[in-house]
Amino acid sequence: MSVVNFNMARTIGQETTTTTTITTTASRTKHRRVHFWSKSRIDSDVSLETLRKVRWQWSKVKAFLRHGRHEDYTYNGSFQEAIKPVLIIAQIFALMPVRGISSRFADDLNFTWWSLRTFYAMVVIVAFGITSGYLVVFVTNVQFNFDSVETLIFYGSIFLISLAFFQLARKWPAVVQEWQIVEDKLPPLRLGKQRRQLAHKIKMITLVATMCSLVEHLLSMLSTIYFVNGCPIFPNRPIDSYLYLNFSSIFHFIEYTDFMGILGKVINILSTFAWNFNDIFVMAVSVALAARFRQLNDHMERAAKLPTTVEHWIQCRINFRNLCKLCEVVDDAISSITLLCFSNNLYFICGKILKSMQKKPSASQTVYFWFSLIYLLGRTFILSLYSASINDESKRPLQIFRLVPREYWCTELKRFSEEVHMDTVALTGLKFFRLTRGVVISVAGTIVTYELILLQFNKDDKVMDCYEE
Predict the structure, then answer these.
(1) What single DSSP character describes residue 428?
(2) Most buried of the four, 17, 119, 331, 465, by CB within 10 Å?
(3) Which UniProt keywords are given for this protein, alphabetically ordered (predicted)?
(4) φ, ψ (nearest 5 deg) of residue 99
(5) Which DSSP category does 188 fall into?
(6) Where are the alpha helices (DSSP H) in 305-362?
(7) Measuring CA to CA, which residue among 91, 89, 94, 87 is closest to residue 266?
């Protein structure tokens, strides 16, 4: 009996041990399974989280691209929107250091002295001033001839232009805010084509003028390279010879180094752009002012043959007076730039026409000279026409008033007509002259007069090559 009980106890113990072992093994397996699935779930959560981040970032990129396309191809027709690319390019070359130019709203514009673009502009102005000072000393003490005076006039005018644009930058936010107030009161532009027309026109003017300026500068470089190859300043150092020749008047006083040579070329590039940008800016402002007068004139022309009221013509007259006052505000801000623009062009046209009588030593110099002269003449002529278009559009209401039927003629229209007839709305050159169509004939007459005088003093029949004394 005891043996049986012992065997039963042993059997029960073995079963208990087996059960415990099985339970422990199952527990371990279950733990491993739980650990595996928790690890898989964690990895899956990380992957999902990464995927969500990627999708979220990609949605931001797509939204930005959609936003960019919408902003790029949707126009509100404002002047601030149209002039934006012109000012962006200007700031690359240290002109017009105004903040907020990328905005479509004039209220975002401001000028501050504590700005990187302001510091950049001031450094370039100082560089132009130092260059002009050295050239004054060179002309008065070393060499006085037509070429040296021409170089002095070029850099001296660039120094004055950069100062004028810096001064304009301080006034520009107030000018554009006044412009936006006047624009908001004008009859709205109905079609998208009308709203983007001004921006596209200013972009085309800027693009064509900048490309022509670039071609002119490249041709000038080719002409200089030809001279350097034949007459190297430093033997076997063509780059140094080229850089030295760009600023030879300055290197008469200071020692040439690689750094100073590169700095001189940078100043030369900045001054070349400033010389061309002067005309581009006046053209852009003239086109924009003429467009605002045209906007009001088109509105009046559409309503002229229809039944109109006195209130309609009162509102039109108020808008016209606002545009006239805006033209005065803009002229007060940019009249010095306009004067520098026309006087500069007049001087260099006379100088280049005088040199056209001389034989050129190379084909590259001939191509550069005639391209530069034709470009300068065309640029001045187009500038004169664009500037005169403001006055043309301001006189156009006189033609529109003739379309009004007799039964709708009123005293307000008579006052409006007399006001348009008596006023002369136009940009000026520091109040010395008004930019009307007559100025084109005046400029042409002045060029011919001065050319006849200069030809009497012209003794050079050929541009000297380096081998000729």
Answers:
(1) B
(2) 331
(3) Cell membrane, Membrane, Receptor, Transducer, Transmembrane, Transmembrane helix
(4) -90, 150
(5) P
(6) 310-355
(7) 94
Q: If 0-12 CB within 10 Å is exposed, 13-18 middle and 19+ buried, where does residue 399 land?
A: exposed
Name residue, tokens 């479509």: 104
What is the pTM for the complete model shown? 0.81
SS3 230: helix
Tell me the one-letter amino acid at 73. Answer: Y
Structure tokens at 179: 């412009």
What does the DSSP assignment read for 384-419? HHHHHHHHHHHHTHHHHHTTS-GGG--HHHHHHHHH
Q: Is 85 exposed, middle or buried (0-12, 13-18, 19+ CB in 10 A)?
A: middle
Check: CB of residue 320 under 8 Å from CB of residue 412: no
Question: Cα separation of 394 and 424, whole Å?
Answer: 8
Q: Tokens standing for 464? A: 């000297």
Side-chain-side CA neighbours of 362 within 13 Å: the count stands at 17
Q: How does pLDDT run across 329-384, given as a tens digit for each residue?
A: 999 999 999 999 999 999 999 888 888 877 887 888 889 999 999 999 999 999 99
CA distance 60 to 53: 11
Closest C-alpha among 244, 253, 241, 264 to residue 136: 253
> Taking the mean position of all CA atoms in its chain, how far away is CA 346?
24
